[in-house]
Write a structure and sequence with these properties.
Layout lengths: L2 E10 L3 H11 L6 E5 L4 E8 L2 E8 L5 H9 L2 E9 L2 H10 L10 E2 L5 E5 L9 E5 L3
Parallel strand pairs: 1-4, 5-8
Antiparallel strand pairs: 1-5, 2-3, 3-4, 6-7, 7-8
The chain binds zinc ion.
């Protein structure tokens, strides 16, 4: 598999307005966009930083994965996303290597990306996302 870069850091917030205030007003990052991904019950805010982005995640529903994460571990860094050249090949390779996956096949992420999560049990406790984007 070919990893191109760290695509984004996914940060779970319980209050997107105070998250926005910190990253935008205090840290001086520029908000580039916001998107709600219904499939994942999440609203995302993107702040580009060089080649990567800070991505704030707020749950749109109490039973969404981000809400569940915050309930268990509190707000904070939730996942690290790596941009891969070909996500289908990457997942096939990980399967042959016996890596436990949350997503056996890619699903739809923000910004038209195709994404898949690896199981934290397979990665030393980190929720790793792979993503493939055309841009
Ligand atoms: Zn992500």
């Amino acid at each position: 598999m070919k990893i191109k870069k760290i695509d984004h850091l996914g940060i779970a917030v319980s209050d997107i307005e105070s998250g926005k205030k910190f990253w935008q007003d205090i840290m001086g990052l520029k908000l580039e966009g916001t998107e709600t991904v219904e499939e994942q019950k999440v609203t995302t805010l993107f702040f580009p930083v060089g080649e990567s982005e800070v991505e704030l995640l707020e749950s749109t529903s109490p039973d969404g994965p981000v809400a569940k994460y915050i309930e268990k571990k509190g707000p904070g860094l939730q996942h690290i996303a790596f941009r891969v050249e070909n996500i289908d090949e990457a997942l096939a390779e990980l399967k042959t290597k016996g890596v436990k996956l949350i997503d056996e096949s890619p699903r739809k992420g923000a910004g038209g990306a195709r994404i898949a999560f690896l199981h934290p049990k397979a990665t030393g406790g980190i929720l790793v996302e792979l993503c493939e984007k055309n841009n």
